[in-house]
Design a protein that fits this description.
Blueprint: H1 4-19, E1 27-31, E2 38-43, H2 48-65
Length: 66
């Protein structure tokens, strides 16, 4: 990777990710489109129960809009 524009772009994206709280991979940032408030953010492998809980919260939030 000798192209300075590529290096610069990667560094910019890494800095942006860190400013969003990304500290490792995989990283999950779950929110509703058009809303600033995140439903959940977490890093690392997660058990299925974690996703189930988050998706239940998401469903509750979506149904409250109707």
């Amino acid at each position: 990777m000798k192209d300075s524009s590529v290096i610069s772009r990667v560094q910019e994206e890494a800095m942006g990710a860190r400013s969003e709280g990304v500290s490792g991979v995989p990283f999950f940032n779950i929110h509703l489109e058009g809303e600033d408030q995140k439903i959940a953010s977490f890093s690392g492998a997660q058990p299925p129960e974690t996703f189930k809980t988050i998706f239940q919260r998401l469903l509750t939030r979506l149904t409250s809009r109707v």
